Amino acid sequence: MKDPYEILGVARTASAEDLQKAYRKLAKKLHPDLNPGNAEAEEKFKEIAGAYDLVGDAEKRKKFDNGEIDAAGAERPRQKYYRDFASSEQDHPYANNSGFTDFMDSEDGFAELLRRSARAQANRRGHDLEYRLPIEFVEAIAGANKRLTLPDGSTLDVAIPAGITEGQVLRLRGKGAPGSGKGGFGDALIEVEIRPDRSFTRQGDDIYLELPVTLTEAVLGARIKVLTPTGAVTMAVPKGSNTGTMLRLKGKGAPNHAGGHGDQFVKLKVMLPKEPDPELEAFISGWESGKTYNPREAVAT
Amino acid sequence: MKFSTQEFLSLSGMGHDTLTAWIEEEWLIPGGSVAEMSFSEIDVARARLIRDLQMDLGVNDEGVGVILNLLDQLYGIRSTLTELREVVRTTR
């Protein structure tokens, strides 16, 4: 890098005020955003800004003058300027056509060209719009048709595919913001949020459910009704089941990518009658093997 | 790329009060809702330009508004000119 004083066009003895004045004068001419059509402006501006970063700071200037630091690496790192975005084809909220709309009203060939260009500009695709859609656990497994009410009061029908997972994004083609002219609509992007369920939990494609059974059902076995996200099914509880016994309902889990389904696991929980039952008490008092069995044998005390 | 208010403030090194003031002046027009504003890269670059105007070039607040309005008109003309060039090229 050249000498910073030289770049700013000031003497080494210049005061801080003179330095700032010199820098401002150059920056006004060379700031890239004020010179959108000047490709060189950015390089030159980087140079003068780097020079001013060095000698415009009293501390750094002192070190530089004493030869403790040099001008190497003082150039400002490359950055994105406003002009890099403002002239792009992309629509942005700061676009302003008031500088030439009057030209478009006349009847000459130039106005026709402008109008044609405006039409081309007018055929832009609309923006994608993002939404969040909370759904129930059961809907995520079984699939559902939901209706989303948009901020403007209109509605959007969303088909939730079976087996969708938390955070998955659904794209509805053409349901975003309107484009202009023939540009067509953007897409609606819907992020799915799954509400936790009171009874079901999910691990991968498998579903877990804790199911209370009566003492009678556990001891003697039974066929009982179990809820799955896709409806109730009948399940055989084998004789001698216990709290913690895990039963599997094959294929009753969430659909997976392979085209199959996970399983639903049902964990039994044996429940005594809510009210103390004299008949049961009478039986238990006379039940000899019940008095010798120690379920805590394996538990260290 | 989209930024939250917090990300925008740290990227552009400005305070919340300044942001509110700039939005009121319509120097910045963030997307999203009032409760949850969303900023894009053009907003970050524009904030940097405003800061350059104020700090480096010593432009006062009235001047910033005038400059931004004229610049936006200039950029509007430039992008139309760019498209016009395409039209002229393709119709030749």
Outline the structure in words.
The complex is a heterodimer of chains A (301) and B (92). Chain A has 301 residues and is of the alpha+beta class. Helix content of chain A is 29%, strand content 23%. Chain A contains ten helices and eleven strands. The termini of chain A are far apart. With 92 residues, chain B is mainly α. Chain B has one domain (2-90): Multidrug-efflux Transporter Regulator, Chain: A, Domain 2 (Orthogonal Bundle). The termini of chain B are far apart. The interface between A and B is large, with 39 and 34 residues.
**Number of extended strands of chain A:** 11
What spatial form of chain B do the alpha-carbon principal axes imply?
globular
N-to-C CA distance of chain B: 38 Å
What portion of residues of chain B belong to β-strands? 5-15%
Strand order of the largest sheet of chain B: 1-3-2
| SSE run of chain B | EHHEEHH
What would the average pLDDT of chain B be, to the nearest integer?
Answer: 88
- Computed Rg of chain B: 16 Å
Low-pLDDT runs of 5+ residues of chain B are none
User: How would a textbook summarize the main sheet of chain B?
Assistant: 3 strands, antiparallel
> What fraction, in percent, of the residue positions of chain A are helical?
25-40%
The N- to C-terminal Cα distance of chain A equals 79 Å
Q: What's the helical proportion of residues of chain B?
A: 55-70%
Q: Count every helix of chain A, treating DSSP H or I runs of 4 or more residues as helices.
A: 10
Instruction: Please tell me what the overall shape of chain A is.
Output: elongated
Question: In angstroms, what is the radius of gyration of chain A?
Answer: 37 Å
**Number of strand segments of chain B:** 3
- CATH structural class of chain B: Mainly Alpha
* CATH hierarchy: architecture of chain B: Orthogonal Bundle
